[in-house]
Amino acid sequence: MKPLLEVRDISLSYHTLQGETTALSHISFSLMPGEFLAIVGPSGCGKSTLLNVICGLLTAEQGVILMDGSPIRTQTARIGYMLQKDHLLEWRSIYKNVVLGLEIRGRVTPEKKALAQEMLRTYGLDKFADARPSQLSGGMRQRAALIRTLVLKPDLLLLDEPFSALDYQTRLNVSDDIGKILKKEHKPAILVTHDISEAISMADRVIILSARPATVRKIVSIDLGLKDKTPLASRNAPEFKSYFNLIWKELNQDA
Fold first, then answer.
1. Do the Cβ atoms of 175 and 195 come closer than 8 Å?
2. At a CB cut-off of 8 Å and minimum separation 6, what does 223 contact?
3. Nearest alpha-carbon partner for 183 in 242, 243, 135, 231
4. Model pTM?
5. Angle between helices 110-122 and 138-150 (to 10 degrees)
6. Residue 23 burial by Cβ neighbours in a 10 Å radius (0-12, 13-18, 19+)
7. Is 53:24 a contact under the CB 8 Å cutoff?
8. What is the pLDDT of residues 94-122, one digit of tens each?
């Protein structure tokens, strides 16, 4: 099976009047179809910068990113990007927020409208279709933001700490919800997170980045021996602690 995404020898520096700051240094990894990757690393190491390069918001100074063997710059419409904040518009209903991306791309068709309504129903938001974002809990807002992304039918989903603004209990429940949604939709995804437990519980592999300039310190394959892996079930697996200690040790090599 060929990789869906190939990141090859990516480097990037920020240039200011004060000088040059290297953010990413020779980053390489691949993502297989249907795979879930998590990226962890010290604060400020360049995790979000890497996602911005993958989705085409930033251009690497060195290296190449391929999607199905073609340069990523020709494939950006196939990528969905879910940010840290939900960015729901208060003056639009939840349904109107969900179809916003379709409107921007000029793809509002009867079929897409039906898909949006079906997804709201499937993921428990159909009763809130006419509500305003302020009437929803933080977890429900994140679910709406995910539906807004998925209704575009992206081939790859990028998640930049989408649960970090939630309280711990809500975060666990929403990560479990979203993990199940992505599994049901068979969506390959890359998650950036500071939370080691979140990375282990959701991902098939965890990429550990070094302090800035970010390099790939280690890639850890996660096998918890679960027949039906969900984020909540993963945290109770006997192997979970061993993976946590391994990743913690790698992250603290720079401390």
1. no
2. 239
3. 231
4. 0.89
5. 150
6. buried
7. yes
8. 999 999 989 988 888 999 999 999 989 98
